[in-house]
Amino acid sequence: MADRETPKEETLAVVEAPTNSLQVYPNPAKQSAVISYQSSVNSQQPIELVVVDVLGREVYKETSQSPILRTNLNVSQLAAGVYLVKVQDGEQKVGGRVGFQ
Q1: Tens-place pLDDT, residues 37-93
Q2: Which region, left, alpha or beta, applies to residue 40 given φ > 0 means left and ψ of -120 to 50 means alpha?
Q3: Cβ of 71: how many Cβ atoms within 10 Å?
Q4: pTM of the predicted model as reported, rounded to 2 decimal places
Q5: Domain at 21-100: CATH architecture
């Protein structure tokens, strides 16, 4: 009878996905875009929202002391194209893309 190896127990690490949520809709936007963000960071630091064009030029900036940020951005005066939405929440950075028509 051959010796059998005993199965080894392995512990898997469970990494929770951050509950921070950044939403931008509609995407693409024609007249206005809603940008919302909810923080899960227990921080006293403000949340900073910045929208930049593909050349890195800042087209919108907002700072909020609240853990919930929600803004209705009028995009009708912006050139059509892809824009980057960046949120700085304490040490965390979250980003996304949105198209404006």
Answers
A1: 998 777 788 999 999 999 999 999 999 999 899 999 999 999 999 999 999 998 888
A2: alpha
A3: 16
A4: 0.76
A5: Sandwich (2.60)
